[in-house]
Specification:
Blueprint lengths: L5 E2 L1 H5 L5 E4 L9 H8 L5 E3 L22 H10 L8 E4 L5 H12 L5 E4 L2 H7 L28 H6 L5 E4 L3 H5 L16 E2 L15 H11 L8 E4 L5 H11 L6 E2 L3 H5 L12
Parallel strand pairs: 1-5, 2-3, 2-4, 4-5, 6-7, 6-8, 8-9
Helix pairs in contact: 4-9
Amino acid sequence: MTHLTLVSTEELGRHPEWRVFDCRHDLAKPDWGLEEFDKGHIPGARFAHLDRDLSAPMTGTNGRHPLPEAKTFIAWLGRQGLKPDQQVVCYDGGSGATAARLWWMLRWVGHEAVAVLDGGLAKWLQEGRPVTTEVPELAPVSYPGKTKGSMVASVALVVKKLKKAALLDSRAPARYRGEQEPIDPVAGRIPGAKNRCNSDNLSPEGTFKKAATLRAEFESIFPGRSSTEIIHYCGSGVAACHNALAMEIAGLTGSRVYVGSWSEWSSDPTRPIARSV
């Protein structure tokens, strides 16, 4: 069975042959994730660094975690020894947002058999499951990726569709309202956007809510709008992928992610900004 959205810790424990990627990251401490990975990780995992592996270099106007060129990301997958028919499982140390970024990027280059570990490393450890410091040695391969442009919303597309777009902001409500901005230089939101903090996708136990619950919650935000019209954004294109994943879990397929997100949008003073204060 191919897993396209989530896998449980129990399922992963039964399949040591699956490819696993540790995506732990701390925005304030960029080296923290790799340091923690070196201390211990799920057996079979290799590390995916948000800044170095899942993002392009910053220019000051393209956001904090720009989408790398497809060929660059595909070459990285080849260096990981990933084959197109392998089931991939992504996890991180928090809500699953960084894991969702890799999930989304793998789908973007055509790798469908990818899922996020429901509950992440926290649930794995709570259940007393094994960790290791060993990293599997895998021979590089030529990965035959092919991108899906329909998954991506560029800044040009957002500008073009601004008055009619179904924009969904994944940041915390205070950041969405423009009351505070702890990361980017400018506070506010893209005009017309609705808010759905990505943490609302999770149950109190840290696992994703049931599909029916997620579906009802997302459909209440944009009544009557097709899921293919929705464009997710956040601060830098990470938490937005969490909302995209939640919609896929809910059976609401085909939404886009604006990877540049607020950090790109707000870098140009000519672009409009909305605030609730």
